[in-house]
Amino acid sequence: MPSSHRYSSKWDQSCNWAQGLEGNVDSSHVGFLHKWFDPDASPEAANAGASRYEDKAPVLTVKETEFGYVYGARRTTATGYYWRLTPFILPCYTMAPDPAAPG
Prior knowledge:
There is one protein chain. With 103 residues, this protein is α+β, with helices and mostly antiparallel strands. The protein has one domain (15-94). The chain is built from 2 helices and 4 strands; from the N terminus they run H-H-E-E-E-E. The protein has helices at 17-25, 30-33, and strands spanning 59-65, 68-77, 80-89, 93-94. Strands 1-2-3-4 form a 4-stranded antiparallel β-sheet, with helices on one face. It is globular. The relative contact order is 0.19.
């Protein structure tokens, strides 16, 4: 895969293991706990993402996989739908989407 199509990061999260996992697999909390009160100042504003979390009740779709599951949280936006996909890889890995990531 060319480097223009890859993004890698990691962080140290000082909390209970279950709390960290719950935060990564709970897309509905994003519109409440990560809200920017000034959407123009948000890191997502350049990508027209300031309104992507206005829908506070995403519709969830889950697909079981051989590695665990992946789910999509679908929110309605002014221009259609915004999907946030989150895989859970057994026994304890998640890849929480980063809307501010390059790409």
